[in-house]
Design the sequence.
C-alpha cells in the first residue's frame, strides 16, 4: 500500500494539542513553576530550588494527611470491592427485574457529590438527624462532630453508600458477559457454587475488577467534596485527607510554594500507584 | 456406559398450556445403543441442541422420559447422570493448568490425588495433551482447548455418554480433519457412547456408525451413512445429504405408472395410486444423458474436480446430474435417463413403502 506523506496533516491535530495544553499542560506547568519559587506577595518570585519539596516531605502534617488518606482508601477498597461483587452475584441476569436493579444501583452515582455530603451531614446529626438520633436513642454514643471514630465511620459509610454501585455495575457487566456454556460445563463437571465462583466468575471478572479498583483508588485518593461538606476535615484534623489539607495550605494560608510542592507529590503518588497496580494486573494476565 | 432410550420426548420453550405453541422437539422415540458412535445431523434450529441439552440434563423435557439402561434419569442433574459434553466454543478454566483442568471433574467428586494422577496421565496421553500438562490452559490454541474439554469428559472412569455440540466450529479447517479422525480413533479405543451434533454432513458421516437426521423438531431418518445416501426416507434427507442434494420433481400416478410431465418414469417403489403431494426423488449421481428419455436443456456446467455438476431444466424444473471428468457434454436440447433402481416416489415428503410414518 502506498502511504501518502503530507506534513500538513499535522494541522489536523492542532485542536487537540491546544485543548490538552490549556486544560492539562499549562495548569500543571504553573504548579511546577510555583513549586520551585518563593514569593512574598506583590507578584515577585525568587528561585528556591527543591526547598519546598524537602519541607513537604519532612512535614509531619503532610505525613499525617497521607496516612489518613491511605487508611481511607484502603478501607473503602476492602469494603466496596467484595461488597460490590457480592451484590452483583445476587442480581438477576435476565427478566424484568434486571432494569429495575440497574436503575436502583445507578441512583447513588447520579447524585451530585456536595449533595451526598450534605445529605449525610444532616442525616448523621446527633440531635435531629435520622441516623444520628436513632443511634443515640439506641444507647450508642455517637457524635461525628466531636468524636474522631464516629466521624470516620460516617465518612466511610458515606463513601460505601455512594460508590459501591460503581463496583456492582462493573462486576455485573463482567458477570453477564460469561457465556452460558461455562456454567453448563461446570455443572457437568460437578463443580460446587464456590468452585464456579473461584474458577469461572472471578477470573472472568478480573478485567472489570481491575478497572473498578483503579477507578476507586484514584477517585477515593483524590476525594474532596464529600468529606469537606460532611466533616470539613474535623474534628480537629482527624479526617483531614490529602486534598483537604492541600486546600487549607493553598487557599487558607496562601502558601503557594508548599501547596504546589504538595500537589506535585500528591499527583506523582496517584500516578505511580495506578501505574504499578495496572502493570502488575496486566502482567499476571499475560503469564 | 449405558444404553440411552428416549421415550415420547417433546420439548417447548413456551408454556404448553397456552395451546398452539412452537415445539423445539416434537415427538421422539429413540434408542442409542451402548458404545455406539452416533451423529445427530440437521440444519440450524432443527432442535439438535435442545435434544442434546435434554439428554445431558441441562434442560428438563416438557414431556417424555429419558432412560439410561433401565433407570429413569429424566429428573436427574447432569452431574448425577454422569455424562460429558463438549461445547461449540471451547470451555476451559483459564486460571488453571491443563493438568488441573483435566483433574477438575475428579477433584469435584472427591477423588484422592493419588488416584487422579494416573488417570489424568492416561487421558492426556490419549488426547495428546501430555507435553502441555503444566501449561496454563488459557494459553492454548482453540483446538488444544477443545482437546481439554474432551479430556475433562473422558477422564471420569464411569462416564455414561460423551456428547459433542458442533465441537469443530471454531477450529481451523486443516485441524478439523485431524481432530475429526482423532475423535473416531478415540471412540474405537474407549468405546463410550458418543453423540456428535452437527449441521455438517461430512463431519456426521465420517464420525458416526449411525446418523440420526433431524428436521423441524423431528427425526426423519436413522441409518448408516450409506443408507442415508442410497435410500433417503424423506425428501429432506435426500436434499440435505449429498452434494449436490437429491433432485426432487413433482410427479403423478396414473394406472400404477409414475409420470413426470406426462412422461412415464420407471421407479424402484411403484404404487397403484397415491394421495397427497407425490414427488420423484433421484440423486444427481444416478441421472445420465441418454438417447431418449426426459427432454431437458443444459443451463449451467460447474467443474468440481473429478466430476462436473450439470444444471439442466426440464418443464420449468431444475434437474442436476454429475458427469465424470473427460466425458463429453452435449449442449442445447438433451435427453435424460434416470437409473430405475435409484428413482423413488415420495408422498408428502416421505418415501412410499418406506419405514417412515
Sequence:
Amino acid at each position: 500500500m502506498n502511504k501518502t506523506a503530507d506534513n500538513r496533516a499535522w494541522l489536523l491535530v492542532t485542536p487537540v494539542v491546544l485543548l490538552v495544553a490549556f486544560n492539562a499542560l499549562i495548569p500543571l506547568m504553573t504548579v511546577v513553576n510555583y513549586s520551585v519559587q518563593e514569593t512574598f506577595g506583590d507578584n515577585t518570585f525568587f528561585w528556591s530550588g527543591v526547598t519546598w519539596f524537602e519541607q513537604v516531605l519532612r512535614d509531619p502534617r503532610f505525613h499525617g494527611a497521607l496516612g489518613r488518606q491511605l487508611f481511607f482508601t484502603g478501607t473503602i477498597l476492602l469494603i466496596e470491592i467484595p461488597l460490590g461483587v457480592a451484590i452483583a452475584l445476587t442480581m438477576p441476569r435476565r427478566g424484568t427485574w434486571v432494569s429495575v436493579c440497574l436503575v436502583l444501583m445507578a441512583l447513588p452515582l447520579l447524585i451530585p457529590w456536595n449533595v451526598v455530603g450534605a445529605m449525610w451531614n444532616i442525616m448523621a446529626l446527633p440531635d435531629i438527624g435520622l441516623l444520628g438520633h436513632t443511634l443515640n436513642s439506641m444507647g450508642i454514643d455517637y457524635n461525628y462532630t466531636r468524636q474522631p471514630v464516629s466521624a470516620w465511620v460516617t465518612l466511610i459509610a458515606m463513601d460505601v453508600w455512594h460508590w459501591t454501585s460503581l463496583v456492582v455495575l462493573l462486576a455485573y457487566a463482567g458477570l453477564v458477559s460469561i457465556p452460558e456454556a461455562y456454567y453448563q460445563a461446570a455443572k457437568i463437571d460437578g463443580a460446587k457454587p464456590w468452585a464456579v465462583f473461584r474458577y469461572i466468575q472471578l477470573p472472568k471478572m478480573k478485567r472489570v475488577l481491575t478497572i473498578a479498583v483503579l477507578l476507586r483508588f484514584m477517585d477515593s485518593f483524590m476525594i474532596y467534596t464529600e468529606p469537606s461538606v460532611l466533616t470539613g476535615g474535623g474534628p480537629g484534623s482527624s479526617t483531614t485527607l490529602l486534598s483537604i489539607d492541600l486546600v487549607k495550605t493553598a487557599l487558607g494560608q496562601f502558601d503557594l510554594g508548599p501547596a504546589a510542592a504538595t500537589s506535585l507529590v500528591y499527583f506523582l503518588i496517584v500516578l505511580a500507584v495506578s501505574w504499578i497496580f495496572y502493570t502488575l494486573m496486566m502482567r499476571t494476565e499475560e503469564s | 456406559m449405558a444404553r440411552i432410550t428416549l421415550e415420547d420426548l417433546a420439548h417447548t420453550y413456551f408454556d404448553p398450556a397456552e395451546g398452539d405453541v412452537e415445539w423445539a422437539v416434537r415427538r421422539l422415540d429413540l434408542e442409542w445403543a451402548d458404545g455406539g458412535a452416533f451423529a445427530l445431523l440437521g440444519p440450524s434450529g432443527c432442535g439438535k441442541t435442545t435434544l442434546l441439552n435434554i439428554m445431558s440434563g441441562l434442560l428438563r423435557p416438557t414431556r417424555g422420559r429419558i432412560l439410561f439402561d433401565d433407570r429413569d434419569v429424566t429428573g436427574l442433574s447432569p452431574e448425577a447422570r454422569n455424562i460429558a459434553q463438549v461445547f461449540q466454543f471451547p470451555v476451559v478454566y483459564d486460571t488453571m493448568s491443563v493438568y488441573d483442568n483435566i483433574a477438575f471433574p475428579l477433584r469435584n467428586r472427591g477423588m484422592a490425588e493419588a488416584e487422579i494422577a494416573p488417570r489424568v496421565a492416561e487421558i492426556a496421553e490419549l488426547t495428546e495433551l501430555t507435553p502441555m500438562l503444566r501449561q496454563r490452559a488459557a494459553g492454548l490454541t482453540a483446538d488444544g482447548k477443545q482437546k481439554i474439554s474432551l479430556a475433562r469428559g473422558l477422564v471420569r472412569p464411569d462416564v455414561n455418554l460423551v456428547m459433542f455440540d458442533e465441537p469443530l466450529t471454531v477450529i481451523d479447517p486443516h485441524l478439523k480433519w485431524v481432530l475429526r479422525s482423532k475423535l473416531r480413533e478415540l471412540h474405537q479405543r474407549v468405546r463410550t457412547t458418543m453423540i456428535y451434533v452437527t449441521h455438517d454432513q461430512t463431519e456426521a458421516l465420517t464420525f458416526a456408525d449411525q446418523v440420526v437426521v433431524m428436521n423441524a423438531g423431528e427425526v426423519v431418518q436413522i441409518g448408516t451413512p450409506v443408507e442415508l445416501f442410497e435410500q433417503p426416507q424423506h425428501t429432506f434427507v435426500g436434499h440435505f445429504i449429498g452434494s449436490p442434494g437429491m433432485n426432487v420433481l413433482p410427479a403423478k400416478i396414473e394406472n400404477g405408472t409414475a409420470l413426470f410431465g406426462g412422461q412415464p418414469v420407471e421407479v424402484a417403489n411403484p404404487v397403484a395410486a397415491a394421495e397427497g403431494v407425490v414427488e420423484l426423488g433421484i440423486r444427481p449421481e444416478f441421472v445420465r444423458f441418454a438417447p431418449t428419455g426426459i427432454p431437458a436443456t443444459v443451463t449451467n456446467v460447474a467443474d468440481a474436480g473429478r466430476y462436473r455438476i450439470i444444471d439442466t431444466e426440464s418443464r420449468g424444473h431444475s434437474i442436476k446430474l454429475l458427469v465424470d471428468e473427460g466425458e463429453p457434454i452435449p449442449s442445447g436440447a438433451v435427453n435424460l435417463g434416470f437409473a430405475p433402481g435409484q428413482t423413488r416416489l415420495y408422498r408428502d415428503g416421505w418415501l412410499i413403502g418406506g419405514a417412515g410414518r
Remarks:
- The mean pLDDT of chain A is 86.
- The two ends of chain A are 35 Å apart (CA to CA).
